[in-house]
Amino acid sequence: MRVRPLFVIISTLSLFLAVVLIYPSPPVVPSKSSDSTSAKSDIWSVQRIVEWRPCKWWLQSHLTPLPAKSNGYIRVDCYGGLNQMRRDFCDGVGIARLLNATLVLPKFEVAAYWNESSGFSDVFDADYLITQMNGFVNVVKELPPEISSKEPHRVDCSKRKGQFDYIESVLPFLLKYHYVSITPAVSQRRDRYPKYAKAALCQACYRALKLTGSLEKKANKLLEAIPKPFLSLHLRFEPDMVAYSQCQYSGLSPTSMKALEAARGDDRKPWTGEAARIWRNRGKCPLTPNETAFILKALSIPTNTNIYLAAGDGLMEIEGLTSIYSNVVTKSALLSGEDFETMHGNTKAALDYCVSINSDSYMATYFGNMDKMVAAMRAFKGLYKTLFLSRRAFAEFTSRGLEGKPLMEALWKAHEDDFIKGRGSALSDCFCEFKL
């Protein structure tokens, strides 16, 4: 009689063990709640899969010797803002090497609009440039006496596109006149350059252009004054920028509307109806400061972040940013009145550029000349906390009716993909993609 209970106990234990072996309990997984939160504390915590670094063929290649005799002199005429002129000058260096020409220091052609009177040597160290370009291309400050009295033969390449070729279109004039001035083509075909011409362009853009001693000193003073760590934010919402975009905005203040109407004139009227919607969804409309603040929050950038505002004069609706991100500083506030008031557009832009390439992180609401130059130089220095806020993603998501948390989640995903893949991190002419 006592054997039966023992048999039942043994049978029950056997059945229990069989169930455990057939249906094992799930493995214990560490909680991801705290790790996940810290891993995604902001967009910079996302693991990238790509980095852009200077190509080895540029940094380590043996230079093709310069020919013994130059074909003549080339001056690059640069127009627009500082970084547009910097881009044109870098292109001009590559063109000069391509055509075996001696490069004359460029001429900065600036309209009254830019409130500018400074020349190349007022911004960049000419002696440093000449030294750094040794072996890449010959650069001179002045022309020889037999040429200096002449005006260069003007060759405007700026509107040329497609199969435009400098050897075919510029070299004959260089050989005939021995002194030409050019404005580089907007659409370059650098893929057709020999590597020695590409290397000259890369060397000029990322190693040879250095601010003058006085500007560098002012830039260092500005860097020291900015609370650390800090994000440099290149925000574009000036009246001329918005007018040029031909975009419609609702809810702007009367002051902003008045400035915008003055900038629009008669030939920059905004799109209306379906055309306006399509235009905005293509990412053509500058982000407002308020929209910028919303995206920063979506990317988990803390609202107490120190932000240096890299921007021109006359930003509209800036309260839309500063009402949310209160630790925003500007160069006009950090520099003494005398230091700031004596500066022109180019020298102010030079300070923004210098601060941005040395910031802990950099974000831009546009993808213009400054942004491309800053991103590339940051990649050159090994600084990869760089991101371009997507106007297109913001427009597409809001046009679908997304708002609040769903909009924030969608914006996070869009920018996460951009950061992971290194979108826009550097210009491909001088940089190569490295998988991580």
UniProtKB/TrEMBL annotation:
Topological relation to the membrane, as annotated: Single-pass type II membrane protein
Query: What Gene Ontology molecular function terms does this protein carry?
Result: glycosyltransferase activity
Localization, per the record, is: Membrane
GO annotations under biological process?
A: fucose metabolic process
Q: Is Lyase among this UniProt entry's keywords? A: no
Q: In which pathway does it act?
A: Glycan metabolism
A Pfam family the protein falls into: O-FucT
Major site of localization recorded for this protein: membrane
- Keyword Lyase among UniProt keywords: no
Q: Would you indicate the residue range of the signal peptide?
A: 1-22
Cellular component per GO, a single term = cytoplasm
Going by the UniProt record, its keywords in alphabetical order are: Carbohydrate metabolism, Fucose metabolism, Glycoprotein, Glycosyltransferase, Membrane, Signal, Signal-anchor, Transferase, Transmembrane, Transmembrane helix
Specify the superkingdom: Eukaryota
- Which protein family is named in the record? Belongs to the glycosyltransferase GT106 family.
Q: Which PANTHER family match?
A: O-FUCOSYLTRANSFERASE 13 (PTHR31741:SF2), OS02G0726500 PROTEIN-RELATED (PTHR31741)
Q: What is this protein called?
A: O-fucosyltransferase family protein
